[in-house]
Amino acid sequence: MSNIDRRGFLKMSAGLAAGVTTGEVLAQDKKAAAKPAAAAPTLNLKPEKGAKLRVLRWKRFVAGDEELWTANTKKFTEKTGVEVRVDNEGWEDVRPKAAVAANIGSGPDIIVGWFDDPHQFPDKLVDVSDVANYLGAKYGGWYDVCKKYGTRQGKWIAVPLGIIGNAIVYRESQVKAAGFDGIPKDTAGFLKLCQALKAKNTPCGFALGHAVGDGNNWAHWLLWSHGGKLVDEKGNVVVNSPETIASLEYAKQLYDTFVPGTLSWLDPNNNKAFLDGQVSLTANGISVYYAAKNSTDARLQEMVKDIQHARFPIGPVGKPTELMQITQMFLFKYSKYPNAAKAFLQFMMEGEQYNPWMKASIGYTCQPLKAYEANSVWTDDPKATPYRDSSKLMLDHGHAGPLGYASAACLADYIVLDMIAEAASGSKTPKKAAEDAEKRAQRYYKV
């Protein structure tokens, strides 16, 4: 047995125990050894001669994201000779600029946009199935929610770049001072915590302005957690329901615990309010923690020890109902250099570029491909761990209906967020807010 390794010995022992002869086991081992290993997937895209690319993406909230993105872009140019210009726009500005480019047939070759924006103009986008299928085969497959966002009628119209995870960000000392050991697991307990925080003059605050990420994310969680939804599985508008009214009644009570000014908050505002000490709890990505951790301000360095993250509470429906912000890369057909553009998408998603990018932003963007879940960014600092499973947890915002033009348009029109803001602030009764949301949604979901 000197020529049989430990694995072979264990396999032989198991075979003998089952009544299989030693000769049969060795024959099986020999056959397995002779079987060629599965070939690694390949994709060889050759950029067009003289190709130049223009990429439009959102402005960073985390410096490491932009720094590594820039470095990776430079590496791509050095490798291929393709010059790439990257323009950074505010989060609220990316969607309208993408719509303008689609309408006039001119603009950036690639847009790094939000949610299901590509579904608003799928016929104007290049089929990137070759890139997406290659990446999926090489890196453990796409998470289901990412595949749903990236595909339409069986083909990939976008390459999901990642999920900007959203969680409850809070000051541990202030939560404990309010009489709680951590974030309650249910919405009823969560409301009591927020009421206690206000009583201690350490209020919470959630964005209620047209915040692409933070506002949309927590508003949909609130609606879904009570069983409300904009449309059903067939795309029928069902938002005007008892479940929605219940969520809006809850929103009114929660809003009473907010710091003033949240009705106008966009995505940067809750970051600033938290770091300024105006609020003790909000909904955000890991960018608040990142900013404090990388600051030279002694006050913020002290705050780092106090910042914690937790998943959103579960409402009456009894299961997680979280929306998080997916960002996708899509390529317009008007591009003169589609091969170069697809090569850029592939390059930026390869492990040599993607893993360091995730690390540099301490997990600000959660992986869309399952293999990258093993990135040590999620365990190097335990405070990043709650964001690791964002791609597994999140629901798509079309819930429970299909993604497409109507779902994209309703999100772009902030129908759910406006409904929550109107009812929470008292500018409309919950019933009126739900009725108006129903009418607005019906304009897009035409029967």
3D architecture notes:
With 447 residues, the protein is an alpha+beta fold. It has 2 domains: 176 residues, D-Maltodextrin-Binding Protein, domain 2 (3-Layer(aba) Sandwich); 207 residues, Periplasmic binding protein-like II (D-Maltodextrin-Binding Protein, domain 2, 3-Layer(aba) Sandwich), CATH 3.40.190. Helix content is 46%, strand content 11%. The strands form 3 sheets. It has a 6-stranded mixed β-sheet with strand order 2-1-3-10-6-11, sandwiched between helices. A 3-stranded antiparallel β-sheet has the order 8-7-9. α1 packs across α2. The termini are far apart.
What is the fold-level CATH name, i.e. the topology of the largest domain? D-Maltodextrin-Binding Protein, domain 2
The helix/strand class is: alpha+beta
CATH class of the largest domain: Alpha Beta
**Radius of gyration (Å):** 25 Å
Low-confidence stretches: 1-36
Number of helices: 20
General form: globular
For the record, the count of structural domains works out to: 2
Say which CATH homologous superfamily of the largest domain is assigned. Periplasmic binding protein-like II
> Based on DSSP secondary structure assignment, what is the total number of beta strands?
11
Q: Using the 3D structure, state the CATH architecture of the largest domain.
A: 3-Layer(aba) Sandwich
